[in-house]
Batch of 3 targets.
Target 1
Amino acid sequence: METNNVDYTELSRAIVLGASAIGAGTAMIAGIGPGIGEGYAVGKACESIGRQPESSGAVTRTMFIGCAVAESTGIYGLLVALLLMFANPFINKL
Amino acid sequence: MSISDFLRGSPDGVDVSGPKIVCSFDVGGITIHLTETIVLSWIIILAVTLLLLWLTSDLKTKDISKKQAVAEWAVKTVYGLVEDTMGKRWRWFAPYIGALFTFSILGSLISMLGLRSVTADFNVPLTWALITFVLIHGTNIKTHGFGGYLKGYVDPVPVMLPINILSEVATPVSMSLRHFGNVVSGMVITSLLYYALSVVTAKIGIAFMTIGIPAVLSLYFDLFSGFMQAFIFIMLTMVYISNADGNAET
C-alpha cells in the first residue's frame, strides 16, 4: 500500500487559486448587461440625431453620461475580477 | 516591465501592483507613506500652475496673442459648459469644475509618459467623489433647510428611508469606482498586451510586434478613456449638485 504523501497545503492553495480564476472569469459575465444597454442607448441616440441633427451636441452629451452610468455594473464586475486575479483575498485565509 | 525589457522581449511575467512608496516617515507615531501618486500629483499641479502663469501673463484687450486666444477659449468653454448644465446662477462653480477636469485628464494622461496614472490609485477618485458628496448635501441643506433635507429621506413614504440612505451612499462609491475601474482596467489590459507582445517578440527575435501596436492601444485606453472619464466625472458632479439645488431655473 502506498504512503499518502500529498502536500495538503499546496493542494488547498491550488484549489483556491483555480477557483479564484474561475470566479474572475465568471465575474466578467457582468459585461453582457452594459454592452447590450449601451448599444441600445447609442442606437437610440443615433436615431434622434438623424431626426434632429441640430440637437446632436446635447444628445451626445446626455448619451455619454447615460452610458457611463450604465457601465458602472460592468465596472463592478471588472473590479471583482481584478481583485481575484491580482489581490486575492482568499489565499491568505488558508 | 522596463522599456529595455519590452524592446528586447523578456517574458518575465506581468506585474500589476499599487503605487510604489517613495519614502515614508514618522509623525508622532503615525507612519506617513509618500507614494508615487502624491509625487506625480504635485508634479502635475506644478506643471499646470506654470502653464497657467505662462498663458495668463501679458494679457491685452486688443491685438491678442495666440496663447491668450487659447486661454480665453478654455475659460469660455468651461463657463459655457457649467452654465448649460447647471444654470446661470451656478456660474461661480466653473473654476472648481475646470480644475477637476484638468487634474483628472492630466492624471490619466501621465501614463502616456510611461509613469503610473494618478487616477489609477483609488484614493484620488475617492477624494473627488467625497468632495462632490459634501457639495451635494451642502447644497441640499442650503436650499431646503435642515428640516427639509431630513424630510427628503422619508420621501415619498417613510418605508423608503433605508433605500434613500443607500442611494445617497452609492453616489460617491459608484462615481469613484467608475473612474478608478476604467483607468485601472486600461492599465491592466495594456500591461497584459505588452506582456503578450513581448513574448511574441522573444519567440521570433525581431521587435516588429512591439512597434506600432502599443501606440494604437494607448490611443484608446489612455487618451480616449482618460478624456471620457474626466468628462463624465465633471458632468455627473454638476448634474448631481444642480439636482440637489431645488430652486434652480433649469
Target 2
Amino acid sequence: MAERVLMKGNEAIAEAAIRAGCRHYFGYPITPQTEIAAYMAKKMPKIGGVFLQAESEIASINMVYGAAATGTRVMTSSSSPGISLKSEGLSYIAGSDVPALVVNVQRGGPGLGGIQPSQSDYFQATKGGGHGDYRMIVLAPASVQEMASLTIKGFNLADKYLMTSMILADGTIGQMMEPISFEDAEIENYEKPWALTGTEGKRKHNIVNSLYLKPDELEKKNFERYERYKIVEENEPMWEEYMMEDAEICVVAFGIASRVAKNAIVAARAEGIKVGLIRPITLWPFPVKPLKAAADQVKSFISVELNMGQMIEDVRLATECKRPVTLCNRSGGMIPSPEQVLDAIRNAQKGE
Amino acid sequence: MAVVFEKPKALTDTPLHYCPGCPHGIIHRLVAQAIDDLGIEGKTIGVAPVGCAVMAYDYFACDMIEAAHGRAPATATGIKRCKPDNIVFTYQGDGDLASIGMAETVHAAARNENITIIFVNNAIYGMTGGQMAPTSLPGQVTQTSPYGRDVNHCGWPIKVCEMLSTLEGPEYIARVAVNNVKNVNQARKAIKKAFENQINGKGFSLVEVVSACPTNWGMTPQKALEWVESDMLPYYPIGVYKDRSAEKEAAK
C-alpha cells in the first residue's frame, strides 16, 4: 500500500499535479488557495520545472494559454474573484481547443465577497464564466484525497478531450488536513500534432486560434466541439451514491456540503428515515443518469449547497421535475450544520 | 537573370487583407526578412494580437497563435517558458500593447522575458474603424475624439519606449519608422537585432515601429507618410532608448 501522508488540500493538488507530470505553473496570489502557489514556488525550481508569479490573474491564464498551445501540461489556480478575471482566457482556451487544468478554491461572493468557503461559483464553472459556446470539465473533490486524485484525472481528461478541466473546490477542503496516499499517478499520453513546437521546416505551420470570421466556419467549429462534449457527457460523469438502495428521500450535495449531508443522513437513518445521498463528483458533465433513476424511486430531493441555490437547477433538470426539490443552504462563507440538514430531511419526510 | 527582390520565405502566399497604403505589409516583410536572415523560421513561434494584424497567423509561415486582446506578451511568456529553445515574437498594435495590454507589456519587460516584441504605433484603432488610441496625438481627430484629443479630458499619449527604458529589466528598446526608404532600412536592422538578442539569450527586446493609417486618418497614403514625419516623429522620436549590451560595452 502506498505511504500515507498528512497534507493540506491545496498542497495535495500541487503535489498531485507534479506527479501528473505538470512542470509549468503560472499564478497570482489569492486567499484561500495560495498554498498551491507556495508549494509550486518551492518545488518547481528543484525539479526542472517553472513556477512563475504573473502580474495578474489575466496574465497568468494567458501564460497558461500559450504554454498549453505548445502541448505542455500546465496549470493555474485561483479563487473566485480571480477566476472571474481568468474567464476571458478560459474562453480563448476553449475556443482554441487546447488542454489546461485550472483550480478554483472557492470563497464567498459576489464582488470581493469574503475569504470563507463557498460553492457560489457553480454557475460560473458549469455554465461558462467566459463568453461563447463552451464547456469545461468540472471536478468537485470532497476530501483531500480527492483533491489529489481528481487533479491527476483532470490533467488526463483535459488532454483527452482538448479542453479545460476545472477543479472546483472550496476553502474548507483547500485548508483542511487529512491523511492521503499517492497511488502511482496514471499519466495518459496523447499525441499533440497541433502543438506549437516550431515547424523545423518539416511541416506546414500550426495555428492555434479561436477566430473564425466566416460564420459558417465558426458554426462548424462549434458543432464539432459539441460533438466532443457529447462524448464527455456520455463517458465521463462521476458520482457517489450513499445509502441510496432503499432511500425515499435523496439528498444531492457536492464537495464539503456532501460531508455535512452524510452526517445528517446517518442521524436521520437513526430516526428511521430512509434517506440517501447522490454526490456529483463531476459537476459538468452532470450525473444525470443516477438522478433520473432516483426520481422513480424517491419521493423528494434536497439540494444542499453553500450558495443561494445553483446546482438545484441541474437537479430539477436531471429529474425532469418529477419530484419536488427543496434547497437547504448557507451562503457568504457559512456552512450548514448537520442539524440544519437533518431538519431539512425531517421536513421532507413530513412532506413539507 | 539576377533576382534583386523576392518575397521572404517566412511569409506565406496568403494575400494580405490590409488597406491600400497601409505599412503593415512593409513591417510584416521586415519581420519575415529578419527570420529568413537568421534562418530561424523552423523554430519560431509568433503571437498575433487583436487589432488590424489579428490575422497575422495566416501570413507568417512559422507556427502561430492568436492571443487575446493585449495579452500577447503573457501568451508569449507561457510559450517561451515551455520552449526556451524556440524563438518567440509578438506583433502588436498600439491599442493592444499600450492600452489594454499595458500591464502585460510592462511586466514582460520587467522580467526581461527573452522574447521579441514588434509594436506597431499608428496612433489609432484601425480594425474597429478609427477610434482614439493611447498613442493618438494631442488634438488628433478620431471617431471617439471628434473634436480632437483633449489632453485635459482624456490625458496624454503614452511614449512606450521612453517609459519602458526606465525599467532595469529590458535588454533593448528602440523606435523606428517606415515612412521612407532610409527609415525602412534602419527599421530592418533594429528588428533583426531584436531577434538576435533573443537568440543570444539577452532578453526582452521591443521595437516600436511608427506607422501610418491612411484609411482612418482620412489621408492619401502619401499624405499619411508626410504626417508621420511632420506630426508623429516629433512626439515619438526615432532612436535606441535602451541597449544594455551596447551600454555595457561602452562602459568597458
Target 3
Amino acid sequence: MANSQLKQPEKKCTVRLAREADISQVIAIDAENTGLSKDEYWKDLYERYNRRPSDADEDAPLKSVNRYRFFLVACDGDSVLGFIIGEVRAWEFGSPPCGWVFAIGVHNHLRQGGVGNTLFDALCDRFRKAGVYKVRTMLARDHTLIMSFFRSQGMMAGPFIELEKEL
Amino acid sequence: MKLQKATRCALFAILELAAGQDRQLSANEIAEKYGISTNHLAKVLRSLGRVGLVEAVRGAGGGYRFSGNRRRTTLLDIIQLFETIDPIRNGEREDGDNTSEGKALCQVLMEIEDTARATFASITLDTMIKMVERGR
C-alpha cells in the first residue's frame, strides 16, 4: 500500500475548445483510459458540442444553448494531453441550473501532473460565466480513481440519489 | 455510522503525520491532541508501521513520520486495517438472514455498505487534509 511520495512535475498546458483535428487524439486518450475505442461516440459528441460556427470564438457572448456546452482540450502545442466535457442543464430531476461534467480523461503517463486540475478549473470558469455556481457529476461506485480525482476538487455527495432496476 | 476506537486513532495519527512534509511527532503529542490513550495509540502506530504507512524515528527528538503517498492512500486503506465496514458483502451472516425478510434486509444494508465503501475508497489523505484545512 505504501509507496513513494513521488509526484509528477506540473505539466504546462493551455485549455481551449476542442477542434475537429483534436478528436483522434481524444479518442486515443479515452481508449488508453478505458480500454475501449469509441470513435463514433466522440465524433458525435464533437458535432453536438463544438461544431457550430458560433463556438469558434470562446469569448463570444452566450447567445444560444450551445454556448452552455463545452468540449475542452488541454494542449501542449498540437498535442492533446487531456479533455473534459460539460454542459449547463436546468430543471432536470427538479434541479435548478447546474454545470454537469460528463467526461474527463488525461494520458495515463501524465497523471498527477495537474492536467486534470487545469481542465476542471477551466470548465468551472466557463460554467461561472454561464451563470451557474454549482458543478455536478455522476460516477460508477467502483471507479474510485476518478472519484478520488473529483473528491480532490472538493466535490462531495450531493442531494440526489440515482435509482435503477432491471427491465 | 461509527468507527471503532483503533480506526479513529489510526486516522487521527495518519492525518496528523501526513499534514506536513517530513512532519515528525511523538505518540504522546498525537495522543494529547485527540484525548486518546498513548498506549493504545502506540499499538495502532505499530500496525501502521507494519504496512509501511508510518516509520519510527529513533533517537532524541524521535517519533513517527508518515511514509506513504498521501495522494494515493485512501481512508479505506487505513480503515480496513482495523475493521470491516461491509460485513454483509464479506459474507457475515446473522440469525434470520435466510428468510425472505432477512434477505430483503440484507439487500438494503448492502446498498448502504456499498455506498460507505465507495465513499471511503475515494477520499485520499490529501483530500482529507484539504478538508481539514478548509474547516480551520
